């Protein structure tokens, strides 16, 4: 497991842990605390979770259906797609939610007028981008470390949890 490949992959593992923490904890709180979505804005947390899951499932299905084509093109285009989708998601979230929304209830304005549907698009994009990364990480670990897959996956989950 002491290889340069694992060291390089560790940066990706760490990133997936950060974005997992963001969309499973921080983002939902931001939606619930943004009062421009209505005084009972916490009721949208369930829809947020459903849309993140829908993005994950859409990505997983898409990449499994297009399996032969993605094998020909390699993993790079899918990882690049995940990167671009996450850039779009984070930018959308940045301009759509108030800066104080992670800290508590706020009625402050965002860069644009906060839009609930745009927030839901951000939820879907977070899930889809995460599926781009995770499908490729699992594929890489299973291929590169076929003889030592259990320790490789343990390192992945350990670094992701940090």
From TrEMBL:
Any one cellular-component term (Gene Ontology): membrane
SUPFAM superfamilies named among the record's database cross-references: MFS general substrate transporter (SSF103473)
Keyword Oxidoreductase attached: no
Compartments where located: Membrane
Chain segments annotated as transmembrane: 44-66, 78-97, 109-128
UniProt cross-references to Gene3D superfamilies, sorted A to Z: MFS general substrate transporter like domains (1.20.1250.20)
Pfam families registered for this protein in UniProt: UNC-93
Name assigned to this protein: UNC93-like protein MFSD11
Organism the protein comes from: Amblyomma americanum (Lone star tick)
């Amino acid at each position: 497991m002491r290889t340069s490949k694992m060291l390089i992959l560790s940066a990706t593992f760490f990133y997936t842990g950060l974005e997992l923490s963001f969309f499973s904890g921080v983002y939902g709180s931001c939606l619930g605390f943004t009062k421009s979505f209505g005084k009972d804005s916490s009721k949208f947390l369930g829809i947020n979770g459903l849309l993140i899951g829908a993005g994950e499932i859409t990505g997983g299905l898409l990449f499994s259906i297009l399996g032969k084509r993605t094998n020909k093109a390699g993993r790079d285009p899918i990882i690049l797609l995940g990167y671009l989708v996450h850039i779009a998601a984070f930018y959308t979230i940045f301009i759509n939610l108030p800066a104080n929304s992670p800290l508590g209830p706020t009625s402050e304005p965002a860069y644009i007028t906060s839009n609930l549907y745009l927030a839901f698009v951000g939820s879907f994009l977070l899930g889809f981008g995460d599926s781009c990364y995770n499908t490729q990480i699992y594929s890489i670990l299973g291929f590169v470390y076929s003889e030592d897959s259990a320790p490789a996956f343990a390192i992945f989950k350990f670094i992701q949890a940090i």
